[in-house]
Amino acid sequence: MKKSITLLAAWCLILFNVAAQSSKIQDNLSMTSKILKGERKYAIYLPPGYDNSSRSYPVLYLLHGGGDDQTGWVQFGEVQHITDKAIADGNATPMIIVMPDANTGTRGYSNTPNGEWKYEDFFFQEFMPFIEKTYKIKADKRYRAVAGLSMGGGGSFYYALHHPELFSTACPLSASAGPLNLDDAKKWMERFNQKATDAQLEAWYKQYSALELINAMPDDQKKAVRWYIDCGDDDFLFEGNSLIHIAMRKKEIPHEFRTRDGGHTWTYWRSALPTVLEFISAGFHQF
């Protein structure tokens, strides 16, 4: 009987240790925003061993696309399974992945042209500081990355272009990279029923067009961020991503540009995520 109890205790200890080493994901967390005047939801992935570790971790801000929310990468992107496997296989370093909601109130990661909705201000002034105080994060450019798909790919572009001092790596996937010209910006404003003066619209265009930002990039910023850009050859956003690639080539901005078979689908983005995690992890190690 005593031997049976001892074996049972040993098995319980093994099971406890396995559970303690498992990753965790939560997709209905929230924090209060004064800038956006309400509760803002987010999801978070915590790597295996997080609860029992005294170390701090690198962080990836992973942005969802239009029509999804903070649960998109969890539910459809299978972020937990894919990241667990990448870490277990030694292809990715253990990291915290943060997925904010940008689909409540006004959709998108930018400030609006008239300044009535300031999501980007919220992200940098409230959300990022809250996350990096709440969780065990290495709050340093070297250990911070941003990635996203579609609308979130656009956010990845202009967040890294606006704040190269904050991100070591940016990985836009199938990115909606902002208006390609001022007429595109006007069409966007009409589509989302935004109101702004001509001056406000032009200023917004220059701030949120990845092409404009790249063409205006100072020479001393060309190597500030490691870039990995991926877009399927059947994607309706392929033209914008290709033009950005060409602009980066002309400006001699180092970057990786990948075109694979596929369209604007979760199948494509799930297949992209392991490479993104590996590319980001290389940046966490090499600087």
Descriptive tags:
alpha/beta, 8 strands
Structure write-up:
The chain is α/β, with parallel strands linked by helices and 287 residues long. It has a single domain (23-286), classed as Alpha/Beta hydrolase fold, catalytic domain (Rossmann fold, 3-Layer(aba) Sandwich). Helix content is 43%, strand content 18%. The chain contains ten helices and eight strands. β1 (24-33) and β2 form a beta hairpin. α3 packs across α10 (266-286) and α6 (182-191) crosses α7 (198-208).
Overall domain count: 1
Number of helices: 10
Spatial gap, N to C terminus: 57 Å
Class by SSE composition: alpha/beta
Could you give the order of strands across the largest sheet?
1-2-4-3-5-6-7-8
Task: Work out the number of β strands.
Answer: 8
CATH topology: Rossmann fold
Strand content: 15-25%
Share of residues in helices: 40-55%
Radius of gyration (CA) equals 20 Å
Low-confidence stretches: 7-19
CATH class group: Alpha Beta
Largest sheet report: 8 strands, mixed
Net shape: globular
CATH superfamily: Alpha/Beta hydrolase fold, catalytic domain
Average the pLDDT over all residues and give the rounded result: 91
Topology order in helix (H) and strand (E) letters: HEEEHHEHEHEHHHEHEH
Write the layout of secondary structure elements.
Elements: H1 2-20, E1 24-33, E2 38-46, E3 59-63, H2 72-75, H3 79-88, E4 96-100, H4 119-134, E5 144-149, H5 151-162, E6 169-173, H6 182-191, H7 198-208, H8 210-215, E7 226-232, H9 238-251, E8 256-260, H10 266-286
Parallel strand pairs: 3-4, 3-5, 5-6, 6-7, 7-8
Antiparallel strand pairs: 1-2, 2-4
Helix pairs in contact: 3-10, 6-7
